[in-house]
Design a protein that fits this description.
Blueprint (H helix, E strand, L loop, with lengths): L1 E4 L4 H11 L6 E5 L5 E5 L7 E5 L6 H17 L4 E6 L18 H11 L4 E5 L14 E4 L2 H11 L7 E5 L5 H11 L3 E8 L6 E7 L6 E9 L3 H12 L5 E8 L5 H4 L7 E5 L13 E4 L2 H12 L1
Helix pairs in contact: 1-8, 2-3
The structure holds ribose-5-phosphate (R5P).
The site of ribose-5-phosphate has 16 residues, from strand 11 and helix 6.
Length: about 300
Amino acid sequence: MKLFSGTSNLPLAKKVADLLGMNLGAVEITRFIDNECRVYVNDDVAGEDVFVLQSLSEVADQHLIELCLLGSALKDLGAAKVTAVIPWLGYSKQDKAFRKGEAISVQLVAKFIQAAGFDTVITCQLHSENVMQFFRIPIVELSTCKLLVDALRRESKPGFEHAVVVSPDKGGKSRSEQFAKDVGLDLVYIEKTRDLVSGEVEVKDCVGQVEGNHIIFFDDIINTGSTAIKTSEFVKKKGAKDIYFLATHAVLSGNAASTLPASSIDQVIVTDTIFVPKEKQFDGLIIVSIAPLLADAISRQTR
Ligand code: R5P
């Protein structure tokens, strides 16, 4: 078995390799003068079960092409089975045409991955149940619920007897429902709208009791941070106590890294599905590693 990494999240790939007790496969990923990507696998993979770790984080287009070139090269070298380990599946937010004329981006991303020759995909906490249907190859989705709640218990210790789980929108309700069930807390959900053109978030209402309770938000992504900031403000005004915002994927685009620390949120807990550079880290941000989850999923695939 061999593990290769693209360039999007090398620290995570190294952690996974360490846990598996192996070195990363030898590969050179460079760019031609015109910025086209070139991959060169300098390893013997014939007959091997091979895994390629690559998050489709910014710049998603480039990381996707890199991943596909790696898959293609490994297949050409005779790898027996190639699995794409994609902790963060970029483009998955566009899982439907929100307006007539928009592409269903993640559907095409799935086709690219399949066309590159990958046999299986391992990913973490998908944006929606919709995404699975676009893959014609097996896709394994790893849940980060336990990881995040363990981190919350360890790092913050909110009085769980006075805490409720809040879904920041209706779309994420079933995900939060499962989470609330796992931790044995009540669920509250927020009604929020997002302008399809400007992306502006507006919080309309909140269904359930937040007054006097600690709040544990559970979401899949923090992108611009608008959802996290506005929903937290809303529950704070309604009398919520401490606010913890748990999310799997720290996209942290735009000025999220400077607006989140100034918000009503006491602690943001995310995972390292996406590499968060030092300049995007802030006080009150905790990053827990999904490396053990990935290493375990990879080991199970090879058994
Ligand atoms: C919405 O459907 C998602 O679950 C997230 O709440 C959303 O993508 C977060 O985006 P932003 O941080 O830009 O509000």
